[in-house]
Amino acid sequence: MAQTINMDDFDDYVKKGQHQLHGSMKIIIVAILFFALIFLFSFCIVTIPAGHVGVQYSWFGGVLDDEFGEGWHFKAPWISITTYSVRTTEKTDVIHALSNEGLSINMDATILYRIIPNKANEIHKGIGPNYEYVVVMPQFRSVVREVVAEYQAIDIYTEKRAILENKVFEDASTRLKEKNIFVESVLFRNVELPQQLKNSIEEKKKAEQDSLRMEYILEKEKKEADRKRIEAQGIADANKIIANSLTKNYLTWYWITNLDKHNSVIYVPVGENGMPMFKNVDTVRTDVVTNVTNYTG
Question: Over the stretch 195-242, which tens digit does the pLDDT of each residue have?
Fold first, then answer.
């Protein structure tokens, strides 16, 4: 039995399918546009961290003069960004150098530096991101070796090290400034000298300390001798004054005064009208009688 198809129903069915297809296509197109915008947006937004600058490179014009500072920035999709740190960087290297006597010296040499912020694009053009290994450290090592060669090894081991550090700082600053790099400081640590030279330095220091100690002792003895001379001179002057002031009457009085301190002493004043006098005669006689009695008994 043949089945009859209603054309009106078929047309409605086709139209309904087309309508659903158009709706699905719209959703797909919107989703594609959405993800395309996100993808494009990610290429147009760049974030520069703190202490950094961003150098712009255009696919059509190369490195641009304008740099991005810290924060969020919009850029064209054909612009790529390379970040450079403008913070102070510390780099230490063990450097082997020869003094002007030809002695071998090893030391830890430290350089503190930073790039000039508005010159990062020039560094990117001429050197690149590896400027530390291409320019900074090779130039620093070269300067250290050249300056050390002007001094004796003992100078680096003593207080003259500060002079040497300042010389290296000045020369390194001059060279690296041409490369748009600013040197803040140069330090030397852990200087290693040949053992023979170390022994000589220690012996010299010990001799200097012994010499200073002997100078102190001599100075002390000299002051003590001066003190004794002054004391002796004072005593001599005092004796001289006393000798000039002593008279016969004073000596007699002084002698009698001292004799008066003893109960058993009998004294007689000397003079034209002097009479024999006894001090505590009764006590003296009593003591004598007592002693004689005890002796005979």
Answer: 666 666 666 666 666 677 777 787 888 888 888 788 777 777 777 777
Instruction: Enumerate the β-bridge partners of residue 84.
Output: 53
For the whole prediction, is pTM greater than 0.90? no
∠ Cα 187 188 191 (to 5°): 170
Distance CA 111, CA 165 (A): 10
Q: Which domains does the chain have, with CATH numbers?
A: 46-85 (no CATH), 89-193 (3.30.479.30), 259-296 (no CATH)
Query: Residue 265 is which amino acid?
Result: V
| pLDDT of 116 over the 70 cut | yes
